[in-house]
Every structure is written in structure tokens, then in C-alpha cells.
């Protein structure tokens, strides 16, 4: 058995689920708290599986997807619903997951020149209808799982391109950074994302989910909404899970969003979803300084920059890596080089 270095992250952070549980009636609270407990156990269980399963045969087709039906249970992967090139099924969530993973795969393939999460065309398996009214989605290190939502606060996740692209991007990071970017294994505890490296891992997923959304809609940086998870809440519950434009702005997100965008406020004990606001906002500032379409200049810069990172890299390492790549790709003193520097300076990672 080899330890997986994969993501141990759910789309909806524990703090947000707990916040909603606190506001629920007894039944709703019990459901969400049971899911928090289950999610913690799942991280350990799935991440302990053999690494072999994470490296299926290289693809022979342009895209390789499979969507399974977990049928409300937690056994993975469940029953095969839709294989690559199959016609749509009658299951709307299966089709939504299939389509959104296709968009993420196509973005990495055609825009980034990277064939699937591992760069070798690995098939992406997804199980929809995971668990009982499960209000989350996750990349397990081997596949994606998508819940139906609890019905009260969350509508489900499969239809959300931002959420699906975020989780898929964790699969990319897993293969990009040996040992897992910020993945920590406390003794006797499930693995978790910690420190600056863990926050960079979270941020990579938000940044690429944002670019994928913008690419899919053909949006410029001015047209983009710069949020993740704006489409998963039931009415009145929240506006988005995170904002890259204004991390921690509760008017733009949800009632207890505590994301930070200033490195001077960072503490090593910060949750990765909190401190990911720092690199998220650096990317946003760089993209706005450049204008146009975010992925055209900054996509390769961020991917190649993060490709240089190691398991315990810091924000400053990421800043230097992306600044260096911008200079290499576009020239020293180029607009791109200056924009990336300006991004990291805006969040006080660079001075
Ligand atoms: Zn994540």
C-alpha cells in the first residue's frame, strides 16, 4: 500500500457546512453533522487505497469519462451510467457531471496542452448520487464523487461547472506536485491540506475553475464573476462559496466567509480554504492588470509555475515560480511579467 498524495478536499468547506448545520432544525442539523463526520472518515479511507488505481491505462480516445450512479450509498464507484461517447442518460445529474468534466478536460487539453489530470490521458470517473442527500463534491485522489445536496441549503453540485472544475483541478495538482502540494498526514488522523502549500493547492483549483468558467463562456476578465460555487445554494442561503475578486467579502459570498487576501494576516494554522484567498487574489489582480482573457496569458504561466513547486512550497515560492515563468514566456519587463509581480505584491507576498 502506498500513500496517495491526492486531494483531501471537499468543494464545500467544513466551516460552511457547520455554519448551515447550526442554523438548521434538528433533522437538518443531524444530517449535515453526520456528513461532516462521514467526510472526515472518507478522506482517510479513500486516500489509503492503492496508488495503482490512480494510474489507469493511457487514453486512446480524445476524452475519457465514466459516470457512475452511487444510488445514494457510499460504495464506490457504483453502477455505470454513462461511458465516453454514450448517448445522454435519463439521469440529469449524470449528464451534467459528464458535460462539466468534459469542459474541464477539454480546457486542459486544448488550451493548456495537458491531457487529463495526469497528463497522460487518464480516464476520469465520477460517481453521482453519492450518499444520502450528501451536500458536497470531492476528488478522492482516484475519482470524483458528487452528492445530491441536502435539499435545504444545497441544490446539488453536478450542474456547477465551477465546483466540478475545482475538484478536477485537484486531480491535476495531485499529479503535478510529487508528494501532494501541502498534503499532511497527522499521525492517526485523516490527511489534510495544511499551511501555505495546502492553501496553494486550494487556490490552484479556484484559479483554474475560474479560468475554465471564463473560457467556457468566452468572457473577458471584466465580464467574469470571479466567484466559485455561485450556483449550488438554495435561494437565500448564500451567493457563492468563494470570491477571487474580494476574498472574505460576505456580501459577495456567505455569512461567515473568513477568507483573507493579505499575507500579513496569514497564520500557519489557517485553514487552506481561508488562506487560499491570498494566491487567489494575486491571480485576480494579475489578470485584471493584463485585461483580455485570463487563460490566454496567465493559464500557462500558472500551470508551468505550479509545476515547479514542491510538497512544502511557500507563497513566495509560488510567486517566484510564476513570475519567472511569465518572464520566460513573455520576456523580462513584459506586461505579463509586470502583471504577475503586481499580483503577488498586492497581497503582500512580494515586496
Ligand atoms: Zn478544493
From TrEMBL:
Keywords: Hydrolase, Metal-binding, Metalloprotease, Protease, Secreted, Zinc
Residues covered by the Peptidase M4 C-terminal domain: 194-349
Enzyme Commission no: 3.4.24.-
Name used for this protein in its record: Neutral metalloproteinase
Localization per record: Secreted
Residues covered by region (Disordered): 42-63
Location of the Peptidase M4 domain: 66-174
Cofactor(s) needed by this chain: Zn(2+)
Provenance organism: Caenimonas koreensis DSM 17982
InterPro entries found in the cross-reference section: Metalloprotease_M4 (IPR052759), Peptidase_M4 (IPR023612), Peptidase_M4/M1_CTD_sf (IPR027268), Peptidase_M4_C_domain (IPR001570), Peptidase_M4_domain (IPR013856)
Transmembrane segments: none
SUPFAM superfamilies reported for this sequence: Metalloproteases ('zincins'), catalytic domain (SSF55486)
Family: Belongs to the peptidase M4 family.
GO aspect biological process, one term: proteolysis
Role description: Extracellular zinc metalloprotease.
Record's GO cellular component terms: extracellular region
Source taxonomy: Bacteria, Pseudomonadati, Pseudomonadota, Betaproteobacteria, Burkholderiales
Segments forming a coiled coil: none
A Pfam family matched in the record: Peptidase_M4_C
